[in-house]
Amino acid sequence: MDETTLHRPKELIERFAISAAGLRIWANEFADFLSPSAQKSQTETGYSSQRRYTDDDLRVLSVVKRHLDDGHTYEEVRRRIRTEPVNDEPLPTSAPEPTSGAETRAVAPLTEEHPIMLAFRQALEAKDETIRSLEARVGEIVANKDLTIAVLHDQLTTREALIKTLGIRPLTPPPARFRWSLLTKILLEPVDTTAHGDTKP
User: Fold this and answer.
1) Does residue 195 or residue 4 have the better pLDDT?
2) Quick one: which of 16, 30, 23, 130 has its CA closest to 78?
């Protein structure tokens, strides 16, 4: 298989044993490491075009599956892809060819899956991928929050140390307001003149 061979999504679904929804999530989460043909795009008429995956894309997704199966988050997988030689990753093997004759008829009841059960299983796989993606994003948000708190705490500590070094005293409270009501009462209250002996004879 030459390097220009493009693989359809159905082939990857069989190779990696994942649902179509799970493959789309992987393609979106790790789009930076995939070829342009694996990116989400539209045709000239505005319809979504079907993705095509190169051999290198298969190698990248093989690394993704291996690390996700080991319990790593999407962000951890991205870091590993940036540091690991993805080109050395072997291509995932194709789905096994069905046997023929009587052997096929013997195993058919065990391998066939009811369409409803298949759709249900794919929905569960898509749900698991969505939960894993959300958990990774929550972890990134928590990490950013902790970093912000640490930076603010350092800034506060630095300002407190600077205030102590400069010997800055707290501002004195403003002077009390003049009691105009008391002055008004003094000026308008009638004066008792009997206390000064000014009574008439």
Assistant:
1) 4
2) 30
